[in-house]
């Protein structure tokens, strides 16, 4: 970690979708780009500017759940887009017509230009449907010459977070909620996300996985679940006395350090 290094260009596009641009390489995480996901969830954040997901060099998929692996969004990017996916996910994507796929397991990496993308562990169930294909769940470390960005995907805390914290992370993209009124296992709530931040020790943290998707027809009655989690996360980070700066970014907006 270089405390003087500028942040890479980043846009929080909503849910777990973040555009990270560093060393001239555009990396997109878990693309959810369209008004609906799997006919059940709808986007309640503003529509996206298509330029924010154009000319992507690589896509990192954390796991197979439909709100992270959205096939319609991937088709919007193009079937020849490089997809970096968990071990076990490749067969599904090849069957769906995608051609450039790299499977990784924790500790393995793939270089895209001058950027190294390394798979990290995650504690989350990676099934597509209860009876569908299964694969690992992952996070990713995106490293340029002077910056390290950690994308947690969907996860609970895990022991290796302390090891990631020794790397000198510049940015951690941390999930702080989900898309409904409750969280199942394998997720971080605002308190858990703050505890994970304590272990990761990044210069900056961007709360993700909030404020974007909600089951059709009930979002208006559960507005607090769409807006409160990142604020509670930032408050808990402050209460823990961490030096990490929380960069609260609304869906569709650029991540600004100041």
From TrEMBL:
Q: Which SUPFAM superfamilies match?
A: Metallo-hydrolase/oxidoreductase
Instruction: Please give one Pfam family short name.
Output: Lactamase_B_2
Q: InterPro entries annotated for this entry?
A: Metallo-B-lactamas, RibonucZ/Hydroxyglut_hydro
**What Gene3D superfamilies does this protein's entry cite?**
Ribonuclease Z/Hydroxyacylglutathione hydrolase-like (3.60.15.10)
Task: Give the Metallo-beta-lactamase domain ranges.
Answer: 14-209
Please, which domain of life does this record's source organism belong to?
A: Bacteria
For this entry, the protein name equals: MBL fold metallo-hydrolase
**Which species does the entry assign this protein to?**
Cryptosporangium minutisporangium
The root-end lineage is:
Bacteria, Bacillati, Actinomycetota, Actinomycetes, Cryptosporangiales
């Amino acid at each position: 970690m270089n405390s003087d290094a500028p942040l890479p260009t980043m846009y929080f596009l909503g849910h777990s979708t973040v555009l990270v641009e560093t060393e001239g390489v555009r990396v997109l995480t878990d693309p959810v780009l369209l008004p609906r996901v799997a006919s059940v969830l709808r986007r309640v954040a503003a529509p996206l500017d298509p330029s924010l997901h154009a000319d992507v060099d690589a896509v990192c998929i954390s796991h197979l759940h439909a709100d992270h692996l959205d096939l319609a969004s991937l088709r919007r990017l193009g079937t020849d887009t490089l997809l970096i996916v968990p071990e076990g996910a490749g067969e599904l994507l090849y069957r769906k017509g995608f051609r450039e796929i790299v499977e990784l397991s924790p500790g393995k990496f793939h270089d895209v230009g001058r950027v190294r993308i390394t798979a990290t562990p995650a504690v989350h169930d990676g099934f597509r449907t209860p009876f569908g294909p299964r694969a690992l769940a992952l996070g990713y470390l995106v490293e340029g010459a002077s910056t390290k960005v950690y994308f947690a995907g969907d996860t609970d805390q895990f022991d290796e977070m302390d090891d990631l914290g020794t790397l000198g992370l510049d940015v951690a993209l941390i999930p702080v909620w989900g898309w409904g009124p409750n969280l199942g296992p394998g997720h971080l709530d605002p308190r858990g996300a703050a505890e994970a931040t304590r272990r990761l020790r990044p210069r900056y943290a961007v709360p993700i996985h909030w404020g974007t998707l909600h089951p059709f027809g009930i979002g208006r009655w559960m507005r607090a679940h769409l807006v409160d989690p990142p604020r509670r996360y930032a408050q808990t980070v402050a209460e823990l006395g961490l030096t990490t700066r929380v960069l609260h970014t609304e869906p569709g907006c650029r991540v600004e350090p100041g």
